[in-house]
Write a structure and sequence with these properties.
Layout: E1 3-5, H1 11-17, H2 19-23, E2 25-33, E3 40-49, E4 51-52, E5 56-57, E6 61-62, E7 66-67, E8 71-72, E9 76-77, E10 81-82, E11 86-87, E12 91-92, E13 96-97, E14 101-102, E15 106-107, E16 111-112, E17 116-117, E18 121-122, E19 125-127, E20 131-132, E21 136-137, E22 143-145
Parallel strand pairs: 1-2, 3-5, 3-6, 4-7, 5-8, 6-9, 7-10, 8-11, 9-12, 10-13, 11-14, 12-15, 13-16, 14-17, 15-18, 16-19, 17-20, 18-21, 19-22
Antiparallel strand pairs: 2-3
Length: 147
């Protein structure tokens, strides 16, 4: 685990406020803290496994794990469970979406159980429920809609 700390973030502050991060399997992480509301910021790196709780994801690769809440701005999601949060943009390649708001991005596979889809491109996957305001259905077989 290699971590570059920015924004005056310290290991002591991580231990006190973001102990879940120390339990995660990560590589080449660049992390900091948002001064005004003290949220964790993931600037870049590789999330191999673990549980994410709140915070802001700016860029990087998510290999697998559970996302509990927060904001995703861009990057590559390879696999995992998205429990809640706001997805601004990026590439989703597989996994389970359980709740939250998808603003934009490219979905390439996985299962959508619930949440709000505002915009983006959908390539393959399974839609089980939720609100779709305007999916750009660039579908490739198999895409299954069951709500």
């Amino acid at each position: 685990m290699v971590i570059e700390l920015r924004d005056n973030l310290t290991i002591e502050h991580i231990k006190e406020n973001f102990s879940w991060l120390l339990k995660a399997d990560i590589e080449d992480a660049i992390i900091g803290i948002l001064p005004r509301d003290r949220k964790l910021i993931w600037y870049d790196g590789i999330w191999l496994d673990g549980e994410w709780h709140n915070g802001i994801w700016r860029d990087g690769i998510w290999s697998k794990g559970i996302w509990h809440n927060g904001e995703w701005h861009t990057g590559c999601w390879e696999y995992g469970k998205w429990k809640n949060g706001i997805w601004h943009s990026g590439w989703w390649y597989n996994g389970e979406w359980h709740s939250g708001v998808w603003i934009n991005g490219v979905w390439r596979n996985g299962i959508w159980y619930a949440g709000v889809w505002l915009s983006g491109k959908w390539h393959k996957g399974y839609w089980k429920g939720g609100y779709d305001s305007k999916i750009n259905y660039q579908t490739e077989s198999p895409s299954k809609w069951s709500d």
